[in-house]
Amino acid sequence: xxxxxxxxxxxxxxxxxxxxxxxxxxxxxxxxxxxxxxxxxxxxxxxxxxxxxxxxxxxxxxxxxxxxxxxxxxxxxxxxxxxxxxxxxxxxxxxxxxxxxxxxxxxxxxxxxxxxxxxxxxxxxxxxxxxxxxxxxxxxxxxxxxxxxxxxxxxxxxxxxxxxxxxxxxxxxxxxxxxxxxxxxxxxxxxxxxxxxxxxxxxxxxxxxxxxxxxxxxxxxxxxxxxxxxxxxxxxxxxxxxxxxxxxxxxxxxxxx
Length: 257
Ligand code: NI
What we know:
This protein is α/β, with parallel strands linked by helices. Helices cover 40% and strands 16% of the residues.
């Protein structure tokens, strides 16, 4: 069964020592496609460099809300240039993060988010959205861009918000935390999410699923997330892997296998 990790940060420093060995091991573990999102211009370039040198790896280019301090026209122009490259398949990761006090002001985050949604609309690219403790504003802003489609990565909103996003054509990303004992909302969100809108992600190097919680994460942990979703949705793990593989290819439609 092919596996598609739609969100993993393989340009991260956490992989500096063994990146090539690890990337080489992914296809043996069934991971046939990975989208590597950027968090700023530099990491978006690094994501593209990995994508251009490895089969099955793809990049997203974008400025993350936690990393947007001081960003301006030059940065947006650089992201736009990156989006013209064949192996950049999305704008991301973009969004709002109200969790950390030291993050840039909300209004600035919102402006950066809107500019990148406008870019995605203009270039007809999907987006990967980061929404942490900012559900109301995230929903309100994506509503302003009805033509833009994408995924709410590591979705943490309510089942009602999930339904609203699904109605608007969005996908939801499920990550390692759905395997944690205290995951209460995730099964409720999964229950209202149709099979054809589910994506599986690791967010590597973060968010390792049980039984590897606390360790560095990588795409080889994807089956734990697939198995949990399969259990909740009443399908086999093989079917869930196949469905999420097809969903990933449908959303990130610049990918040519
Ligand atoms: Ni991420």
